[in-house]
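Severity: low
Component: inverse-folding endpoint
Summary: output formatting inconsistent between runs
Steps to reproduce: submit the following structure tokens with default settings.
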């Protein structure tokens, strides 16, 4: 993970989180993995529809989302290795609600074939803002202070993505 906001997490840090069994952490990780995967797929899929001057940034964001997936998986593995991972029952799993990041059915991004670069960037900005809000909600619910810091870290990254896209929007408008 980047140290751009002054906090870096290592595998050793994740082991420290494993002192608690918290369903909210498990839900946050599971939903976070889904969100980050969808966002990465979205950025990769829209590259071909964007002006050349924006493709570098979209590739960067797709790679950032992959970094988030890897970080979330490291956290999950640390919890599993320390016996602190909670396997969700089918009833608990049905409660998982993925935040609606994009317009479209089932959370799958819907972008018109003739959508402008501006419209695509606005859709991306909404998704980044909604992802930030999700991580902030998880941060408020978890009890472990290090887990709170972790979800806050992810929220700040999403805020940075939003700001980056806002800058791109100004160049294509």
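Observed output (run 2 of 3):
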């Amino acid at each position: 993970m980047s140290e751009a906001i002054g906090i870096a997490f290592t595998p050793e840090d994740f082991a420290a989180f494993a002192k608690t069994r918290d369903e909210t952490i498990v839900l946050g990780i599971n939903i976070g993995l889904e969100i980050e995967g969808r966002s990465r797929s979205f950025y990769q899929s829209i590259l071909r529809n964007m002006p050349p001057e924006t493709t570098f940034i979209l590739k960067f964001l797709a790679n950032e989302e992959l970094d988030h997936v890897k970080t979330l998986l490291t956290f999950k593995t640390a919890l599993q290795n320390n016996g602190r991972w909670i396997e969700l029952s089918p009833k608990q799993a049905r409660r998982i609600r993925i935040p609606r990041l994009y317009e479209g059915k089932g959370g799958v991004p819907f972008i018109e074939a003739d959508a402008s670069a501006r419209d695509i960037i606005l859709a991306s900005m909404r998704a980044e803002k909604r992802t930030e809000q999700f991580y902030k909600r998880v941060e408020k619910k978890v009890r472990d202070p290090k887990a709170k810091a972790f979800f806050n870290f992810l929220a700040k990254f999403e805020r940075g993505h939003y700001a980056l896209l806002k800058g791109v929007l100004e160049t294509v408008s």
